[in-house]
Amino acid sequence: MAETLYDIIIIGGGINGAGIAADAAGRGLSVALLEAEDLASGTSAWSSKLIHGGLRYLEYYEFRLVREALAEREVLLRMAPHLVTPLRFRMPHHQGLRPAWMIQAGLFLYDHLSKRVSLPASRRFRFGQDSVLKPEYTQGFEYSDCRVDDARLVVMNAKLAQRKGASILTRHRVIGAERKSGLWHVQVHNNSGDELQLQGKALINAAGPWVRSVLDSVKQSQTRKGVRLVKGSHVVVPRLHEGPEAYILQHTDGRIVFVIPYLNTYSLIGTTDVDYTGEPRDACIDEDEIAYLLQLVNSYFQRQLSPENIVWSFSGVRPLMQGEQAGQVAAKVTRDYQFELEQDQGEAPLLSIFGGKLTTYRKLAESALEKLKPFLPQMGKPWTETTQLPGGESMASLSDYIRELGQKYPFLSTADQERIASTYGREAERWLQSATSLEDLGPALGALYAREIDYLVAEEWAQTLEDILWRRTKTGIGMTDSDRQALETYLQRNQKSSSQQISAK
């Protein structure tokens, strides 16, 4: 690998890095993606799990961002029907906050800023006597967006990139980079303690919250722009309501909070917007954020929550460009993406990415490569809009594939069929193969199976318990200590066996 000259070296294995890697590799470029930890181990796995236009951004006149995001909903529904599924949202009308005419005008724009193909339009809504909300909330509005498995969206983009020829290197930390003779020379440490040096014609800094620290490690970098880190936290509680819809709640401070059905038996509540300093991987929810979320939910819902109801919480740190908006409250800082291209005459380019949303990652990738096209004129044309991610091939809808999976593997329980189909799509058949019984899948390790674990390690870059429980699957919630220990033992035994086989060779 050290002897390979890459067209592009990408630093960062989140959604932006993985999306760019897939797009670039599909255009015929040689690509290396470097991730210091696991894929999606930073911001990309700690989102609100939504593909959405961003209704609240209309208040800040971010029409371009909303239009692009609305269009991308339709693209991603086609690209990954197993990971991206429609979801209806209900917004109770709160007397004294946004007037009804303003919400209706916003929803009209939301319906018409971009061509809407598969999602139903918004409508005025009246809550009935069986409403889960308090009696004072009698009217509201309903509109459409989508939910997504965020971490798996990253992994499937990395898998697509790999299938197009990209090298995906997890647990490879960049410790320095410098230009020499018109090329980038990038120094890398892997988790085995080895040091590598890769060469590339162009370098992309897609490190998310670490974009500034990467720039500081790059010799000759001239970018001095700062990054504003904003923490968003979520809590997960037992399911608040039985219906399939989500709720969007208005707060008196102008922000909104989502209550989203999650993993059938839970509700996901979030997010906060809090300025953050410190190491992004150490971010966690604090007492003020918990109080903020629960107080808002309790002001709307009949069922009241306390901190004791929280079964899980998580926090992610969003990297926003620090500029003229430095004095704004965090919620008002743009989520649009921005680029900084460093190029000197005859020198290799460095492209740094600031901001961005999960929803618009594909357009961000196209824009990033357009910036680099003058330096890599051999690259092909954009192509990802009409492709499907691994697992989503020839799939009309998730519900259709769940039925198909059940017919092929009738020994799977209904819960297993739904979990496996929504996690892997058609990729599931790569590890289910010709199984005719649960025994063929090996011992159960919590909600997972041994053959499934083997697949995740061999095919999806999973190495640790956390990789498997929180990013490749979402089975960590509710897993017992004994099941967790059994899975950890199984992983360690397999890693030891693999090491022995390598040593023997």
Could you explain how this protein is built, in words?
Residues 384-490 form the Alpha-glycerophosphate oxidase C-terminal domain. Keywords: FAD, Flavoprotein, Oxidoreductase. One of its GO terms (cellular component) is glycerol-3-phosphate dehydrogenase (FAD) complex. This is Glycerol-3-phosphate dehydrogenase. Helix 1 runs parallel beside helix 4 (150-163), helix 1 (15-26) packs across helix 7 and helix 8 (398-408) packs across helix 9 (414-424). The protein is of the alpha+beta class and 505 residues long. The chain is built from 13 helices and 20 strands. It starts with a strand and ends with a helix. It has 3 domains: 5-43 and 152-225 and 334-386, FAD/NAD(P)-binding domain (3-Layer(bba) Sandwich); 85-147 and 228-324, D-Amino Acid Oxidase, Chain A, domain 2 (2-Layer Sandwich); 398-504, Alpha-glycerophosphate oxidase, cap domain (Helicase, Ruva Protein, domain 3, Orthogonal Bundle). The protein has helices at 15-26, 63-79, 100-112, 150-163, 211-217, 287-300, 361-372, 398-408, 414-424, 429-432, 450-459, 465-472, 481-504, and strands at 5-11, 31-34, 50-51, 84-92, 123-126, 139-148, 167-169, 172-180, 183-190, 195-205, 226-238, 246-250, 256-262, 266-270, 274-275, 312-322, 338-342, 350-354, 444-445, 448-449.
